[in-house]
Specification:
This protein is of the alpha+beta class. It is 12% helix and 13% strand. The protein is built from two helices and five strands; from the N terminus they run βββαβαβ. It has a three-stranded antiparallel sheet. The longest helix is centred in the C-terminal third of the chain and has 11 residues, at 96-106. The two termini are 23 Å apart. Mean pLDDT is 76; it is low at 1-5.
């Protein structure tokens, strides 16, 4: 799971993305809900983000400038010419299949789960995508 949000100051409207981006990998940090502006969700290339080394500080933050590995570019598919986009098939969210998928994530049925949660966090419903023609 990875989400991107623009770095911000303490001002409410400061997260315009002109400076830096926070990239959240791993467990969703719920304390950021409604406190950062969401830019997007990684649907392809997560393997590249997840190989970046974590910092030595609390929650994996970098403590020293030399530990930082800047992301030099991010490309949003909608901003690329059609000829440069990777064609992906994404599970539509308005289908019975997607509804069943969310329900399976909401109330796990494996034997280990004794009490259904009854809810699901958006980060626990990964986007189902595959390169077009890979099936």
């Amino acid at each position: 799971m990875a989400w991107s949000a623009p770095a911000a100051t303490n001002d409410v409207d400061s997260g315009g993305g002109n400076g830096a981006l926070y990239v959240v990998t791993g467990s969703p940090p719920r304390h950021l809900d409604r406190n950062v502006t969401l830019v997007g969700r990684v649907v392809q290339g997560m393997d590249m983000l997840s190989t970046l080394p974590r910092g030595t500080g609390a929650m994996g933050f970098y403590e020293k400038p030399e530990q930082r590995l800047p992301i030099k570019s991010v490309r949003v598919a909608a901003d690329l010419p059609a000829s440069q986009r990777t064609e992906l098939e994404v599970l539509r969210t308005d289908t019975p299949t997607f509804t069943a998928y969310v329900e399976a994530r909401r109330n796990r049925r494996e034997e280990w789960f004794k009490v259904p949660a009854g809810h699901v966090d958006v980060c626990n419903v990964p986007i189902v995508a595959r390169p077009r023609g890979s099936h």
